[in-house]
Amino acid sequence: MIQIKSVKEIELMRRACAVAAAARALAGEMTAPGVHTYEIDRAVHDFIVKQGAVPSFLNYNGYPRSICISINDEVIHGIPGSRMIKEGDIVSVDVGAFLGGFHGDCAATFVAGAADESAEKLIEVTRQSFFEGLKLARPGYRVSDISHAIQAYAESFGYSVIREYVGHGVGAKLHEDPQVPNFGKPGHGPRLIPGMTLAIEPMINMGKADIRLLNDGWTVVTADGKPSAHYENTVLITNGEPEILTVVDGIC
Ligand code: MF3
Ligand code: CO
């Protein structure tokens, strides 16, 4: 069942989402050659806790860290650890914060140091695919209209969209109905209604869509070894323009 949030619940979501967005920004600032991924996890964890919030992912289905850091061919759910970030790495950071009974969920992809052109392009298209979907995140459209817009935009650059992991409703639970795939025919799925809060999160591969799971049980990598990027915001459906809740100082 899709949870429609009340005005009061939306205000609580705004606070949780602001913490998540600030935590994502911190992770982005820390992303640099020579930094170990556990250092980013630890700093972001401490930041979230200092805001009075709890990292949403820690212990979620047994996930062992507070954030996900997925590098190059890693698509999502990379576990921070002893890996050192290198110059030119494509670093996707996914952060969730639980505050006042609600979750905020967001992700972004950064380049460590100097980026090559193909990496910058992948990251920019992934980000823009979110905004293409966002244009249809309003009453009068259905969930799969968002999905289709993301897929059409990403594929127009020769990239591909993974099928196995999707966006989702978010609120009192990290994952709520409805699923928000990044692919599909338009005109299907639930109608969009004010008060819905959706995590819209394109995961875009430079090469083919196929993925596999590493032996750690979490890390999802591209089957062809080519890079992948991820961008996510928690979005509120309103009567008019959608509102991105995972912003801090106007930045998302
Ligand atoms: N943003 C991801 C999601 O919405 C993060 C989940 S990671 C997990 O599904 F560790 F919590 F599973
Ligand atoms: Co999510």
- The helical percent reads 25-40%
Distinct ligand kinds: 2-amino-4-trifluoromethylsulfanyl-butyric acid, cobalt (II) ion
| Residue share in β-strands | 15-25%
What distance lies between the first and last C-alpha atoms, to the nearest angstrom? 28 Å
3D architecture notes:
Strands 8-7-9-14-15 form a 5-stranded antiparallel beta sheet. Strands 1, 2, 4 and 5 form a 4-stranded antiparallel beta sheet that branches. The two termini are 28 Å apart. By secondary structure, it is an alpha+beta fold. α1 packs antiparallel against α2 (37-50) and α3 packs antiparallel against α4. The longest helix is centred in the N-terminal third of the chain and has 24 residues, at 7-30. A hairpin with a 6-residue loop joins β14 and β15. The model has no long low-confidence stretch (mean pLDDT 98). It has helices at residues 7-30, 37-50, 117-134, 143-155; strands at residues 54-55, 68-71, 74-76, 90-99, 102-111, 160-161, 167-169, 176-180, 197-200, 203-205, 211-213, 220-222, 228-230, 233-236, 243-244. Bound molecules: 2-amino-4-trifluoromethylsulfanyl-butyric acid and cobalt (II) ion.
Q: In terms of topology, how is this protein built?
A:
Blueprint: H1 7-30, H2 37-50, E1 54-55, E2 68-71, E3 74-76, E4 90-99, E5 102-111, H3 117-134, H4 143-155, E6 160-161, E7 167-169, E8 176-180, E9 197-200, E10 203-205, E11 211-213, E12 220-222, E13 228-230, E14 233-236, E15 243-244
Antiparallel strand pairs: 1-4, 2-4, 3-12, 4-5, 6-10, 7-8, 7-9, 9-14, 10-13, 11-12, 14-15
Helix pairs in contact: 1-2, 3-4
